[in-house]
Write a structure and sequence with these properties.
The chain is an alpha/beta fold. α4 crosses α5, α7 packs across α8 and α8 packs parallel to α9. The protein is elongated. It is built from twelve helices and 15 strands. Among the domains are: 56 residues, Arc Repressor Mutant, subunit A (Orthogonal Bundle); 185 residues, Rossmann fold, CATH 3.40.50.1360. Strands 6-5-4-9-12-14-15 form a seven-stranded parallel beta sheet, sandwiched between helices. It is 45% helix and 15% strand.
């Protein structure tokens, strides 16, 4: 073997020894470190670790959610629950009704279908009318009739007493004045001279061109006769009395209009909803209002329908004149028309100091008929 070849082998041997020494040294230095796996063997392990961590997080989140729900249930169990209703307490289903054409209104049940008047004003009007007709009524009877409690009836009676429509008693009420419409012919002969004197005094209150309302009643009838006999002033007259319209029909200087409505047979006056509706077309400079009662309780008459019409006239008049004789002073009839402060002047045949004091208290002009 040549020397060159031997030299190459020697160098190769020395290099191998050196390489093995380095490897041995490195193996000794990293003896405590576990051998690394191949990359392919590491990925499944890493995936399993990631899956385990994700599952653990999910279990933790689910456990926390269940714990919160448990706390909510525990808190809600301490809350007061709404009372359970039985089937008897539940509202009854609406009754079926047939379909109606568009724009058609269904009929509304009246008071008789619902056990009595639904509103306090309507109930009180019925109570006042009933007491006026019967003369008296007990609280228990009224409560059973109108389907309300006895304290409610007591409040109604107190309100009606303040209006002068009845008198409260222990356990009931009495009529202040019996609701009896006296015949017109019989009333015309009562205090005839005084009524004629009052009519002449009322003539002096009228001026040419006035628009006047003449009410029903025997004293206002006397005023219409005086106008027909002593005419001269040009007047526009609206009346609710058939007798007044008949008296003024032949007077050339008076343009008379009869109010339309329901005619009362007892005195020939016009009342009702139609009369109230027609009244809205007119206004008056002076309204002569008849009355059967004049007292601190106010002005009153014997009919609710008549009182409603008179009250509507007063609202549309600039001056309200009350022509009454002395027999009406201090009297209180069934239905109140208005308070005394709505009256501007009173024309009377006789005036006592009490009447003068009453008129002065309400700033009412007192005119004595001569």
């Amino acid at each position: 073997m040549s020397a060159d070849r031997l030299g190459v082998l020697a160098r190769a041997r020395d290099h191998g020894v050196h390489a093995r020494g380095i490897a041995t040294t490195r193996q000794h230095a990293y003896a405590h470190v576990p051998p690394l796996r191949r990359s392919l063997s590491v990925r499944p392990g890493m995936a399993s670790i990631s899956i385990l961590s994700r599952n653990k997080r999910r279990r933790t989140e689910i456990a926390a959610r269940q714990d919160s729900r448990t706390r909510v249930r525990a808190g809600s169990s301490r809350r007061s629950r709404a009372p359970r209703h039985s089937y008897a307490e539940l509202p009854a289903p609406a009754r079926w009704q047939p379909e109606l054409p568009r724009g058609t209104l269904r009929p509304v049940p009246d008071a008789s279908d619902t056990g009595g008047p639904a509103f306090a004003d309507e109930r009180q009007a019925r109570i006042a009318e009933l007491v006026g007709v019967r003369g008296r009524a007990r609280i228990g009877e009224l409560a059973a009739l109108f389907g309300v409690t006895e304290p409610t009836i007591r409040k109604d009676l107190s309100a009606l007493q303040e209006q002068g429509l009845l008198k409260r008693t222990h356990g009931g009420a009495l009529a202040v004045h019996p609701n009896v419409d006296r015949e017109l012919a019989g009333r015309q002969t009562t205090n005839r001279a005084a009524k004629e004197a009052i009519a002449r005094a009322c003539l002096r209150l009228l001026r040419d061109g006035d628009s006047v309302f003449l009410d029903s009643g025997t004293t206002v009838d006397a005023l219409a006769r005086a106008l027909a006999q002593n005419g001269g002033a040009r007047l526009s007259v609206l009346t609710s009395s058939l007798s007044v319209a008949s008296t003024l029909a032949e007077v050339p200087s008076i343009d008379s209009v009869l109010l339309g409505g329901q005619v009362r047979r007892v005195d020939g006056s016009v009342v009702g909803d139609l009369a109230l509706e027609n009244l809205q077309r007119f206004t008056f400079s002076t309204a002569f209002i008849g009355a059967s009662g004049f007292s601190e309780a106010g002005v009153s008459v014997g009919s609710l329908a008549e009182a409603a019409l008179k009250a509507a006239v007063i609202e549309r008049a600039r001056r309200v004149v009350l022509p009454i004789d002395h027999s009406k002073v201090g009297a209180t009839d069934f239905a109140r028309v208005c308070e005394l402060d709505a009256v501007d002047a009173v024309v009377m045949d006789e005036a006592t100091p009490a009447v003068e004091e009453l008129c002065a208290a309400f700033d009412i002009e007192l005119i004595r008929a001569q």
